[in-house]
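3.2 Worked example (two chains)
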Amino acid sequence: MHNYVLTVTCKSTRGIVAAISRYLAEQGCNIIDSSQFDDLETGLFFIRVSFISEEDVSREVLEKGFAPIAETFGMEAAIHDASERMKVLLMVSRFGHCLNDLLYRWKIGALPIDIV
């Protein structure tokens, strides 16, 4: 089983979540976490879906199969392998305690990222 994360940005419209969940279910995937947000000012929709490929479908196959859905909704979509550490840039405006907290979590392994 592989863990993946799907991120999507597109114009907000009806049926996006249904299309995503239907596709993942058809591919033998199980959603383990999902967060979504509608920005009413811009009319944009954002979603991050963590899922497990219970049938060990590769990321390339998932991306290729998802392409028609992304095209239908005009999505900017990406599927990331959850085992690959993301490169992150940290920026702090004023208060150091937020930076200290992030760096502490990173140091103890609670944030599986590479700070560049």
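3.2.1 Second chain
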Amino acid sequence: MSSHDPTVRPEDHSHDTLRRGSYREVLRIGEILRKETIGGLLLVAAALIAIIWANSPLADSYFALRDYEIGYEPWHLRLSLGKWAADGLLAIFFFLVGLELKREFVAGDLREFRKAMVPVAAAVGGVVVPALIYVAFNASDPETAGGWAIPTATDIAFAVAVLAIIGSHLPTALRLFLLTLAVVDDLLAITIIAVFYSEDVSAQPLLLALVPLAVFTFLAQRFPRFFGLHAWAAWVILLPLGLVVWALVHEAGIHATVAGVLLGFAVPVLRSQASGGPAAGHGLAEEFEHRFRPISAGFAVPVFAFFSAGVTVGGWDGLTSALSAPVTLGIVAGLVLGKPIGIVGATWLLTKVTHARLDPSFKWIDLVGVALLAGIGFTVSLLIAELSFTPGSLPGDHAKVAILTASVLAALLATLILRARNRHYRDVEAEESADADHDGIPDVYEEDEGPERVGPVQVDPDHETHGNEHR
């Protein structure tokens, strides 16, 4: 019998795990994933070019380019191009991470404890288990034990690129789970980088960084009132302040990507806008995301991947030696086995403790497929590898080989599972897109939320904020 039959009493799915979420959230997440798909494809292409170049007769020119130094020495900003990509360009990526985290905490699933506990628990499990697996392989070697955080990351751009390549019809609920999981994962990663990979921290520049950060925060919060939403004002006034914060944090000895996250947190988000999708209006967070996401996905992350993924394998013997090294085994096992074990295990444990249940549309094998996608660490894993080991060292090269190998393995295994379930996903997709009353809103969302909760959001044309909407 049809689920839309009025004689059927609807079931209460409020305690289901992997629910599809609100229609507004679906629209917003769908737009983000479309942009990240393009960036992911560029990222994969950049990494392939780097690997081929670094193992070609022209390898010396690749490393000469990567190690070429530019910048202003008196400010300690004379860095190699590879370092500029890691410390500078990735700050743009982490700025968007900060924005997305702010959105989730203000208006997304992380605002409600009941909705947040599943992706948060899954992300924590997906960090802890891979780290423990890595340590099990490397505990006896102090030189390599410091790379324990390398297999804890998730690269959402690479993951959605895999989905695009394999043509998976992954349902909304699984896509939402993957992105929310990746957002929490990024928060854990940046915390790990700030706490465990910051050496010789200098207090003076760190304290000085608080001044432009405070001014940036104040102006960002008052931006609509002072400047309206003129793009030139954001670039002319806020961007230089952000660059000063970045430079001072870099000088303090803390990885400069932390500055990106802090600046992202400082940008205000409207609750109505954060959950609203295309009809929700336009605020400062949307302005920055609109401007910076193409730069991040189309340039910053691919360039970082290009400079970081290049490693000389050294032929078959070199590859065999690298694949058998404890660093490689720890990273590959951590990403390919540890991630799905941690994510699925934490989710299963939570369902037992809270008496929640998996949404009837899905099976545990679907969660395994998504968890394998989360095992594609790549971008952030490469960053942590560079922070863990001396550039050009044998453990550092082994780590890069391991990250590339694990990302490919995780992608292939996820492809096998998700492609096998594609027929079922098409059925779910068809149900989620059905619009019998032709009002532009799929029927399942009207049933879940009621028409009054999925309609367009009205935003003050003067961009003023009222009550507790502005955060």
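3.3 Remarks
The first helix runs from residue 23 to 54.
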